[in-house]
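Per reviewer request, we include the raw input and output of the structure prediction for the construct analysed in the revised manuscript.
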Amino acid sequence: MNDDDGLTYVYAVARDSAALREFLSSLRGISGAPVFLVGEDEAGAHRGAVPNAPDTLAFVAGRVSRQEFDESTLKRRFEDLEWLEGIARAHHEVVQTVATRDTVLPLRMATVYQSDDRARQALAAQRDVFVERLSLLHGRSELGVKLYVMPGPPSAIGGEPSGAADAASLSPGKAYLRSRRAQHSERETRYQRAERVADRVEDVAAGFSRHRVRHPAQRGELASGPEENVLNDAYLVAADQAEAFRKALTDTVEDAEGVRIEVTGPWAPYSFAMPPPPRPEASPAPRPSIGGNG
């Protein structure tokens, strides 16, 4: 594809270096197109006062078809789940591959510019934010932490009501109501246990990282079988502490009946790519309460 025929698709921001350019020479991205760096103009490159700041920045970029990625086509394409999945996978693979080489700042999928020059203008306009985030991410990776409440035993979910001696004297309606109360009580006990475990997990994780992003619990098709996802957090952890972080959290939940933890990663730091929106100092973000709807 000629440069004039395609749009400039950007995957991430990284530090511009000869070593990274050479590393990317064999990498392919969306539609098998080569991946390359779109760097700053020399006149705009400078070192700021931010620790770990790069000398120069670059977009990790590739060429994509104008017919496929122009604005009007993208609106329709985003309703094509098969196409979207393929683009998301290719985007992620490029970002994750670059992350194995150097600090990377992932960008939103399907970020495109009319040309490399337009991309450079955007890079310059957002340079201060990119430098700040790359400095934060330097030497760190994202790890995901999920808590699941496991289903109760069959006897507690719709089984016989407690007190077999009394059961025979109950009408079908009263027996049903007693069973529902027992089921609800057992369910609430599991949620309360999960709430206490979540507090412990949060305390332990805080010893490794001050940077956390709280994602909504997964529901529907994203859920893990019959278990219920009740906590879905991401932490920014020093790369050399990733395994210690994983072990510490796993050990914390080891003896918690009915609660399972899943620690994933390390990943490229998607959750920390941009600064969180400001919030009033007097209103810290609370951890969502864990519980059912009855």
